[in-house]
Design the sequence.
């Protein structure tokens, strides 16, 4: 199978290259870059050198849609709005890692992304690529809107409890923490090492563009669901997301019951691991892997549930989830190329 | 003035030594250690060498209470329960940095600390040393229960809004994050660099001993206050605490009004800085200082308030707040010895 | 093929498990631990859970040497001295990751490790497992002494120039820097996060036990080689080694010539990458991989060569190099199971 | 006394502001910025807010040289070449923290800084501000060339041994390591957190502009001194420099004698601390202070000396050394405003 990666020199692109490089079904990888076309990828990233070098090709949609089996768009917001329609209708399937195709409601995109939204046709074709909750649709799709990093952690964490309507949707608070790579590769004062290290920062309070993405899926599960409170923090580490999630239960229940609900929801999912009672994951537990680890508890004093959900933001939060979607698109083993255990220590 | 520090080789003790060393009213510092008595402090911490060395003295309460003007107890839980009564009744005032004297209700201490509580007499004498909310009592006291690091950040953050009964007490969620030094100096697997770095961990979910301390003060402000949800996380940094605090408002109000409420509550406080609207502090903004910086916002979509409160856990969260209390005990300028601005970068 | 890992819960053991878990020739992994036998590996390391759990087995050499094809000893200094002879003579090949079998001269082991050395028989059987310089002997061996992390970086860096006798051996200075995981899993004050972070430390100046290991190999290349100066520093990062190496050239030469010498020495080696002129690797360039990356320059002002050699201390410096040796022992593709590119960012 | 800081928003400028803010002899601080004049310093750095705000003033040399007692130039290379002459001849003394006035030989500046050098007059007036070795000249000066961070660590480390001609100058190798703040405040790919964290990098091999500065002072001590080998590395920490220094002794001597040589050279210096035998400083030992800590050893196997010298690069390597120079210029206590002990942990 032939894969292409557009935006290969960004953090998402590099991670995709690393995974596809050892993926059993991928024979050939072409890397594309509009800003650095003509340069060698391995001159920019000498650590990626193994055997033959990869020249960064110009983005030529007409050619790509016939030559490639799958195209990954690891591009900044706004690019895939135009590019995806040009890639449709040929052999290639498209997996978009940006936020451009995730929101079905164009006005929400406009409001939260401050850009013109994608057209209805491409939005209609795009399937939200959260495999644990949308597997059948993904398998039929031609275009995948790969979920955002925060929504992945948050939604896998709240899915069962919201779906079962056990908690009050208006009580939902998601306090999320991310490593600095989530801010992308372009350097600025916030991501300068001397500023970010030995520092813990909050940003985009109540204004993060992942809020409507989370709310859209919540409404799929429960049409009564309400606006959520969602905060994002920058942790002095490179990779990893933890979402600490708070929910008020509708009625009294035991933590054992909650635990077994989660276990049963995810028991067939190869990449979601529900922890034993009293055990909570840390972000390093999933570092460099496609896992989402979840811990749950319940405070009888407040009848409030605390759910802890962790992922590697560049893996399950971006590149490896995209490859999981690719595996589903092509009816391969969902786990192909994604078997590596987390790095430790 | 003569000061003594018991538990001088722990993190709180070192920080106290550093501050008192350049405090204008302190002429003489004696360091005490039960486990390392007889050794020189500067042999253990060569970086603290300046001029004459300090021998670690045995803890002799009878002598200390007459020789010293003030004794700081920077000791593990359980020590000051017995030691404080032995230090009372002489010249010396006592400032206890441990959690032993903070909870007025002995059964709560027993429940959360899993130890036998202090006696009623000493608990009756101990004044909770949160200067911004208890200044007059502190000035009259002989024994100070210096607040915990998390309660300091949390209470300064929620004080005005709870006092004014603007929000539902049962909606209060405090999602707190701390640097690793909060776990103390004894090495273990959790604080091992190779485990803690590039990692974000949650711990003691719903079980942290600072919960009853927070609730006790909330009840001072509002007797209808309820059990709170309080989570603690370990950030891969040495120092700093951020408390991200969520509250449901009782009625609609503007963020401008909230902002000016906080400004007016703290305008005379030299160590609490309320940020301008739309600005939130990060932990580095208070690194190495006695400041608590606070940012506030309000989401009109949910009518929920988000308050961000940051401190240096070893300074305003321990040692420098203890010195602020000392200044108040002796009617000195509250700011004496605490004028240093935060380290940056 | 069946593999066993003794000392599975240490850092080297975990890394071995992670690699062997996806190694195409390994069907079965048994984990051994003398201190934690009977526990489940996945209870201790829940992040390693995938499918069936692994019980930690007792170390039973008689059984192991017949049941297993290969045994990895990821044990503290002193253990394999006795254990290796008990494992010899059966089906299993032994790869020892400790320093016990590396020094041929028993008196040197005694002097630098402060322990009784291994017997002559096992030392005679043990082949030094630095594949790039000892491949043929490794392929014939039954027992491998897997090199130390620092010697791996240092020797791959100086090999060509020493072998060709282009520099004065007595001028050799190796200034080495390592991530904290090199100090092992047992927590202590030096590796406490609050001490090690935002800190750069030197340790064991002129006293590191890797010094005689380096010198032994230097003498293989040049019998006139002299005692070296070797310093080790602790970097506030988890993994990675850089050796900055200084050598005085015997005669004037060009950097181009040096560069092509290195290129030609290593051109057939899949895991050593010599950088283009003027380019130097950083430790992240090899993070999570089996690569050793090397950069070289020459200062015409001093006629001194600077060589920069980087590895991942737990991979090429321990576990993945052990697997590379295993591949050679069993005449597999040297690269089997080791194709993953470095993690970035 | 009135002080001015030009370039107040850079890392050196902030550190200067922090120190002068609590300096007993400074009554008034004016901050200057050519790029951000008119803005409030505290709007850019809210963490520096205490009392009245500071507007960033335009740089007006004519006015400054009469209004101020001392002007600190914390500006990028090239600025003080023109600015210093305009500030000369009035009341104000000038302390330049850039490299512009350090090299007496104009051709060396041209060669290493790739810029046009300062004029002879100002170079003639500028005194090299390394107080421990040049105190009397500093006390008479009107213009101070404040030393570079690496030269400060390196020269304090090698001074006594070079001055006494105990070692071969051509054998001198300085392997230096610095925190990321040394690269300044402007963000780039090298200092991006996601690149710099969990990474150890070498840069400017044999090409650092501090090389001629070191060599200039070496020649003051020993006119036979030779070109040195000097390497610089980037450590994943914000602040701190360690120079590991290697020298071949001319004749055999004991480490005790070396030790007492260093002790006697620096015994009257308040900011250089020579460690006891067998003890070596780490960078955290001087964090946030004006100290330079030095450890020395000697390997009898090679007759080579290893000297370890650590400073805080923004303090003794920049701002606090500049204040030390100011104290000397104005015949104040050399230690005024610089008494704070290092931050720990």
Sequence:
């Amino acid at each position: 199978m032939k894969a292409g990666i557009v935006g290969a020199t960004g953090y998402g692109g590099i991670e995709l290259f690393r995974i596809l490089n050892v993926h059993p079904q991928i024979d050939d990888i072409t890397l594309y870059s509009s800003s650095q076309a003509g340069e060698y990828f391995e001159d920019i990233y000498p650590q990626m050198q193994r055997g033959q070098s990869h020249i960064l090709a110009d983005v030529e949609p007409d050619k790509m849609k016939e030559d490639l089996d799958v195209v990954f768009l690891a591009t900044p917001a706004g690019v895939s709005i135009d590019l995806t329609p040009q890639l449709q209708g040929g052999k290639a399937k498209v997996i978009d890692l940006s936020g451009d195709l995730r929101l079905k409601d164009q006005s929400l995109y406009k409001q939260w992304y401050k850009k013109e939204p994608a057209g209805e046709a491409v939005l209609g074709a795009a399937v939200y690529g959260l495999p644990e909750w949308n597997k059948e649709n993904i398998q039929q799709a031609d275009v995948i809107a790969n979920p955002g990093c925060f929504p992945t952690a948050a939604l896998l964490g709240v899915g069962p409890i919201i779906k079962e309507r056990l908690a009050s949707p208006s009580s939902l608070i998601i306090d999320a923490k991310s490593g600095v790579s989530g801010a992308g590769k372009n350097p600025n004062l916030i991501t300068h090492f001397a500023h970010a290290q030995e520092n813990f920062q909050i940003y985009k309070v109540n204004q993060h563009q992942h809020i409507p993405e989370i709310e859209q899926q919540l409404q799929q599960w429960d049409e009564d669901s309400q606006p959520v409170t969602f905060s994002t923090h920058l942790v002095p580490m490179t990779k990893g997301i933890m979402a600490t999630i708070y929910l008020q239960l509708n009625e009294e229940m035991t933590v054992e019951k909650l635990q077994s609900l989660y276990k049963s929801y995810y028991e067939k999912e190869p990449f979601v691991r529900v922890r034993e009672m009293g055990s909570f994951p840390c972000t390093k537990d999933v570092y460099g892997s496609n896992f989402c680890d979840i811990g749950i508890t319940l405070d009888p004093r407040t009848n409030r549930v605390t759910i802890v959900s962790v992922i590697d933001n560049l893996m399950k939060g971006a590149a490896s989830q995209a490859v999981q979607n690719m595996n589903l698109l092509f009816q391969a083993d969902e786990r192909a190329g994604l078997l590596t255990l987390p790095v430790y220590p």
